[in-house]
Amino acid sequence: MLDRRLIQNFDWVLLLLLLLLAGISILNLYSATYAIRDVGGSRIFMKQFYWFLIGFSVCLVMITFNYYYLERLAYPAYFFTVALLIIVLLVGKAMSGSQRWLTLGPLVFQPSELAKISMVLVLAKFFSDRGDVVEYRLRDLWQPFILILIPCGLILKEPDLGTALFVGMVSFSMILLVKVNRKSILIFVGVCVMAAPVIWFGMKDYQQRRILTFLQPDTEPLGAGYHINQSKIAIGSGQFWGKGYLKGTQTRLHFLPEQHTDFAFSVFAEEWGLAGVTVLLLLYLFLVLWGLYIAKGSKDRFGAILAAGIVAIVFWQVVINVGMVTGLLPVVGIPLLLFSYGGSSLISTMAAMGLLMNISMRRFMFQ
Question: pLDDT digits over 37-56, tens only?
Fold first, then answer.
């Protein structure tokens, strides 16, 4: 039976934010697939609706236990995820030239989505166990670096450069939050700069083309630059008020590629314009700020670092996707949090939101 105090401290603000984003997402996905309903668009829309129902169920399940117990499960969850990433390389389902999916009966999911949460958990565990460290130096961080490199390396092998970079960025954001020596940060940045040529030549051809297209988007308007050019046209044509719901011409005429996944934001911007985009981004901003408020109010170090890591997931996923579809960042295939179509991403996100709500509700237990 749930403690009465948990009901009194239920985080209605976070739930309202999730419901608003979910509602906007469903409406946008309906519009994105409206023109292709006869060939499966309605099925895509309904599948995402069911994924949302499952996601909210997972979110509610995540608040039924004390998040403190997860501290004991952090390393087992991490090694379980690593095992899944190895299995997907051996027997995973290949689509569009990448081997990223595992099939369990009717269920198809991406283990790399689990890596986002398991990395946040294991790093929260690692740094909470070392609460007596005032300032970290590079030699103090060799264990976190290994913990980060193993899943990132396996995800790169799929290949999935975008998710690997994303997991790395979330992880290093958490490291910076626990206070790293300034000299160590400069040394690390210098090493990354020197390693850039090695990383460049280790990339596949299509990954290099994406970066070159980002630097010179007009060089291949019908090739590698087609996606971003059509996305920018859609966003710009929305102007201030947008073209109206179900009236986006780039979407209706199928000029905009991947309009229900990576470029769902472009569909929204075309139909709702700058006014709608401002409201959407303010909702995401408030979600980030509310998450930081929860992290600050947590009464134990593990909860605070865990909440900060979840906030980093939200922040970087929004920044990367919006930057990608507006031409400010290279196209790396990162979906927009709670907005783009995809079951694995949605379930992992709702599980993370459930953990954030869990931390928020149990702040009173440490007062």
Answer: 544 456 788 888 899 999 99
Give the separation between CA 306 and CA 363, rounded to whole angstroms.
13
Note the pLDDT tens digit of each residue in 155-189: 988 888 889 989 999 999 999 888 888 888 888 88
In degrees and rounded to multiples of 5, residue 260 shows phi and psi of -105, 0
Instruction: Kindly report whether the global pTM for this prediction surpasses the value 0.85.
Output: yes
Rounded to the nearest angstrom, the gap between the alpha carbon of residue 130 and the centroid of all alpha carbons in its chain is: 27
Are the beta carbons of 155 and 98 closer than 8 angstroms?
A: no
- Judged by average pLDDT, the poorest of 33-42, 139-148, 281-290 is 33-42
